[in-house]
Design brief:
Elements (H helix, E strand, L loop, with lengths): L21 E7 L11 E7 L12 H41 L5 H7 L1
Antiparallel strand pairs: 1-2
Length: about 110
């Protein structure tokens, strides 16, 4: 069974400025609603999440920050991979020098 509220409020209200992490909006009753409904309805919700006066970063700003963090993480992973490859090549060079020019220890042993 679906119950429909007889109180219909306008959706054109504007959110107030963020104060102490809370913002509010006052909606007005639409014509044709029941007489028992309140003339205005105030809705409050938390805003932002940051510490700035405007309630924190916008959704677009948070998205851009996440994107930048992903890029930085990828850069660091690539940098680390290059460093590991360099270290591996240095170790291989040392092994080749010990085993001869071609780097094959078995071939060096059989040649003797």
């Amino acid at each position: 069974m679906l119950i429909v509220s007889a109180c219909q409020y306008s959706r054109d209200g504007q959110w107030s400025e963020c104060t102490d992490g809370i913002k509010s909006m006052t909606k007005t009753l639409q014509p044709g609603s029941d007489e028992g409904c309140e003339a205005t309805k105030t809705i409050t919700k938390q805003c932002g999440g940051g510490n700035s006066e405007d309630g924190g970063a916008s959704r677009a700003d948070r998205k851009a920050a996440r994107k930048e963090a992903r890029k930085e993480r990828r850069r660091n992973e690539r940098r680390e991979e290059r460093q590991n490859n360099r270290e591996g090549r240095k170790n291989n060079r040392g092994e080749r020098r010990k085993n001869g020019k071609n780097g094959d220890a078995a071939a060096a042993d059989t040649a003797e």
